[in-house]
Amino acid sequence: MNTSSSLNLHQRLIEVLVQKGVSTKKDLEEQWETAISKDVSFRKQLIKSKIIRDLPYQKTVGSLLDLTVVERVGTLAADFQKKFTTQIPIRFAKQYLFYPTSFSKDELILAVVSPWPSIPYEEAARELGQTFSLVLATEQEILDGINRAYDRSTGSAEEAAEILEEDEELKLISELSGEETEDLLDSEDEEPIKRLMNSILFQSVKDESSDIHIDPGSHETNVRYRIDGVLHLVTQVPRQAHIPLLNRVKVMSGLDISMKNQPQDGRTMILLAGKKIDIRVSIIPTVHGEQAVLRLLNQSLGIIELDALGIPPQIANRIKEMIQQPHGIILVTGPTGSGKTTTLYSSLNQLDASQKNIVTIEDPVEYRISDYGQMQVNEKVGVTFAKGLRAMLRQDPDVIMVGEIRDAETAQIAIQASLTGHLVLSTLHTNDAASSVIRLIDMGVEPFLVASTVTAVLAQRLVRKICLHCKESYHPSSEEMDKLALPPEILSNFKGILWRGRGCEQCLHTGYQGRLGVYELLIVNDQVRRQIIRTTDASTLQQVAMEAGMVGLKIDCGEKVIRGITTVEEMLRVVFT
């Protein structure tokens, strides 16, 4: 397109936008000049200035150029998708923002952000052996289509390990490149170890695993994923690849590759199909070599709403009420990996951060929220939970979230913060709600202080949900029902049918897909408060709380079994000790 045609188009475009009431002619011409000075497109400048959104802009351009605008680019047929992703590099498709929205033997229809310059589209069509025509789409829709296509076309960790096993140059690998700075789907690196590590990371995100375990053995290294709380063997790596693979993990997370006999902790972030994945890395020495565990946190998922966690409505409503209180301590308890931090952030999300000063101290900061003041524990430089919490009290906070109460000093400061008019949220590692209260007393906090500051304790576990793709009903045996030992109030809703997963490809033949929580909420009312001051016996306190109306973990989980959300086996695995 020549310069005069471009000018004519932009003038016509401005006229149409003025007619539609998008902005004034003067403002639009100023935006045009700004776009030229910044060397960006007129479209990007208008969207960045929030004058117009991408889709209405594309529809306006489409009407001027007589081009169709598609709102959804759709999914390619498997054979053509493979051809497209094999022959067209993802970097090229993303750089020039084009994606095939339709394909036939005669013609390829490319969705593009701009019809100019046309040379990249001509090159892509020539590479695919097709003629082509153009339609318009939004930038985000095209990027989503590209990510979906290349995501599905990326090889698995198993395939990468097989290639690695046959690689003759493996023994010659001595150095690995620096930190990840690009989307893993963009990677064109041919180093076998990099390909293997990228495939391991890619597949773990695709399988929605929470952790990657790289465990050395005497003959080979096992790579396992923790999916829905259970470990699954994914692939085995040849023994000679173990040290290069661990070095790759260390380089990515900024650790010392020369240190082999000491534990190390690190952190890194990767991009995968445009999604940010935070990774916490822990490496320890073992008799067979160094063992690594990588914990994955998908930042793009954001904070889950409180009602979507599986919390019973009556408990969720009480939490929403208590989070609005001006002071007190709310504790969330449960084993490691039971979703305590997620529950805390879902609770904080109920507050208006523009009207309250919310500060957190964590190890590490798992959800990065711009509206909160978030502090990272760093014991190497002396920033502990206790010191950080003490410093936070000088920041005029309204709400303080402490990642974990680990010691007596942190517990005492949290108590003092509550007494001086702050709402404190934190976690403890105990088996049930009543044990958390006793744990604070065991740490040295006076019982009367615990009774006067702690307002509630939420205990939780995570159970696997039955896969909806292979869910089937069955009639349980009397033996199974005896194992459940459910109270009469739950059995009154029982229709004689329970549910389980048969196992399918969608759930990796486990019968389960996804997890949700089971909960019990101990409200510290007058009756419970008197018991806290009187005794340090957790079972007695639990009994008093149940008499005061607390619904136990077992009852909440039992209701989810009866409703067909989870299974008897999960209840026996998670709730019973």
UniProtKB/TrEMBL annotation:
N-terminal signal peptide: none
Keywords: ATP-binding, Nucleotide-binding, Protein transport, Translocase, Transport
Keyword Methyltransferase attached: no
InterPro entries (UniProt xref): AAA+_ATPase (IPR003593), P-loop_NTPase (IPR027417), T2SS/T4SS_dom (IPR001482), T2SS_E_N_sf (IPR037257), T2SS_GspE (IPR013369), T2SS_GspE_N (IPR007831)
Domain Bacterial type II secretion system protein E: start-end pairs: 393-407
Any single GO CC term annotated in Swiss-Prot or TrEMBL for this entry: plasma membrane
Known catalytic reactions: ATP + H2O + cellular proteinSide 1 = ADP + phosphate + cellular proteinSide 2
Gene Ontology terms for molecular function: ATP binding; ATP hydrolysis activity; protein-exporting ATPase activity
CDD domains hit by this protein: PulE-GspE-like
Gene Ontology biological-process annotations: protein secretion by the type II secretion system
This protein's record includes keyword Transport: yes
Enzyme Commission number: 7.4.2.8
Pfam families: MshEN, T2SSE
PANTHER family, alphabetized: COMG OPERON PROTEIN 1, TYPE II SECRETION SYSTEM PROTEIN GSPE-RELATED
Family designation: Belongs to the GSP E family.
Protein's name in the database: protein-secreting ATPase
Source species of the chain: SAR324 cluster bacterium
The gene coding this protein: gspE
